[in-house]
Amino acid sequence: MPQRSAALLALLVLLAGLGAGCGEASGPIRVEIRIHYSHFEPAAFSVQRGVPVTFVLINEDPIDHEFLIGDEAFHERHRHGTEAQHGARPDEVTIAALATVETTLAFDAPGPVRYICHLPSHEEYGMVGTLTVT
Predict the structure, then answer these.
(1) Is pTM, for the whole model, over 0.90?
(2) What are the residues whose beta carbons fall under 8 Å from the beta carbon of 104, sequence distance 6 or more?
């Protein structure tokens, strides 16, 4: 059932993005990403290039997590970084246990962008998602 919900959410996000491209929507589209058992749900979705996206990050776990979104060079820097907390930059967010945080970004280049939690062993455990910019 979670896969079906994730697929439905991805479809709704895509349709919202298509409407935004037609001039019907104003402001950013909203995408909820739930963190449950140290996994992102959905783990994949698409948005249109240039359309602002407000990520609503809902941490259902009793531990802190990160939402770091960027290209491979960005993630390589963070795999070995020393920052305990994030929040001053919209593409680097710390989500406290059982908290909800929002951040808004727009993506100018088409292609895949990954979102990862770089806390120790979280990426290896599977806390990785892919946003495809069309």
Answers:
(1) no
(2) 28, 52, 53, 54, 55, 90
